[in-house]
Design a protein that fits this description.
Length: 387
């Protein structure tokens, strides 16, 4: 505008986005938003003439000119020049004057020369923006990949630590029963008349060893079966009754009563019967192990609002300290006071139970008070079998 001593002007750049033409407008006063009252169309009026001919065009009787249905009031002369890059139209530069017969051939050539230089400057600016955007994208991708690698390395370190701890715990836990078995077998050979006493100890240590091996097998079996998990209709009522029947004698030996509140007409769940049985067995055996007297109350109910089966298992056992509650589902985690109770295990049972519940798209929660007991709640969705 200053170069041609005009009164106003604007630059319109056209970009193609998603197969549509998008206009970017810049006014001589620095505004980049279309001003109120302005209607800008790069294929109409002076801009339309420039766009089609790819040459400068001026109209010195703008008010009377019939070539533009969209006239900006107050201007009598308008000059436009194409902004081109590599023979492609990218925009139009327009200068306006309130004076009639203001522009001529020299004005058009001067504006065209300026438009050519402007095209180079615009292209350089766009190229710079593209480079900046690509650099920012690459920087973001590098940061993302670096974070992912860092997390992967962290997980690998955690797995390695877990493996080391597992080997250590297995070795430590197996050493006690194996040593006891060896010792009492030797004592039995030397003192056959104490057979009954030594046999009882041998049986206890065999049970302990069996429990430890069962923990390892549970985790191994769960991971090897995941790809072969077969979901069928499962009657939770029958499943719970079956597990209770298998462990009722074990509970009675500790003077612990198992109460099952049977609910009729429960809907089936779609799941792996073997895994669900394993999950409930883990919770029941845990309850028996940590309850010295009293009862274990089991209930299964259907929650119609969420269409879930709610299994609750509450005991009157020793309870779980508050500081242990947030960790009990972690692999190999055993509470600080558990080791003093001489209860066999490596802290894998509840981890396995939680994983089984997760596979069945359910949830498991625990609430406990030291000295009063613990309550485990399992939510299992009642699913429809797909055909």
């Amino acid at each position: 505008v200053k170069l041609l001593v005009g009164d106003d002007g604007h630059l319109v750049l056209v970009e193609e986005q998603n197969s549509q033409e998008v206009l970017n407008v810049a006014y001589a006063d620095g505004e980049t938003q279309i001003k109120a009252g302005d209607v800008i169309h790069h294929r109409l009026g002076v801009m339309g003439e420039v766009w089609e001919s790819r040459k400068p065009f001026y109209q010195n009787h703008y008010k009377e000119w019939q070539g533009s249905p969209l006239k900006k009031p107050g201007y009598n002369s308008v000059l436009g020049a194409p902004i081109m890059w590599r023979e492609q139209m990218v925009g139009v530069l327009t200068i306006m004057s309130k004076t009639e017969n203001y522009f001529n051939h020299d004005s058009a050539e001067l504006l065209m020369l300026f438009a050519t230089q402007a095209a180079v400057a615009i292209q350089n600016a766009q190229l710079h923006d593209t480079v900046q955007q690509n650099a920012a994208y690459l920087e973001e991708e590098v940061a993302k990949r670096t974070y992912e690698l860092s997390e992967a390395n962290k997980q690998l370190r955690e797995l390695d630590n877990l493996r080391t701890k597992l080997i250590h715990d297995i070795s430590h836990e197996l050493r006690t029963p194996v040593t006891s078995l060896s010792l009492y077998l030797e004592l039995l050979e030397r003192n056959p008349h104490k057979r009954e006493r030594y046999t009882k100890v041998l049986r206890e240590q065999m049970d302990r060893l069996e429990t430890l091996v069962e923990d390892i097998v549970q985790v191994s079996d769960l991971h090897t079966r995941q790809d072969r998990t077969v979901f069928t209709q499962v009657d939770i009522n029958n499943l719970v009754k079956y597990v209770i029947q298998n462990y009722r004698v074990k509970a009675e030996q500790k003077s612990v009563e198992i109460l099952y509140l049977d609910t009729a007409e429960l809907p089936d769940v779609i799941g792996d019967a073997h895994q669900l049985e394993e999950m409930f067995k883990i919770l029941l055996v845990n309850a028996i192990s940590y309850t010295n007297e009293g009862y274990i109350c089991i209930k299964v109910a259907h929650e119609s609002e969420t269409n879930q089966l709610i299994i609750t298992l509450a005991d009157t056992g020793i309870g779980i300290p508050e500081q242990d509650l947030t960790h009990i589902f972690e692999p190999l985690y055993r509470g600080k006071g558990v080791s003093q109770l001489n209860v066999p295990g490596m802290g894998l049972g509840l981890t396995t139970a939680q994983e089984i519940v997760r596979i069945h798209k359910g949830q498991i929660e625990v609430d406990s008070t030291v000295g009063k007991g613990s309550k485990f709640t399992i939510h299992l969705p009642v699913l429809q079998r797909t055909r």
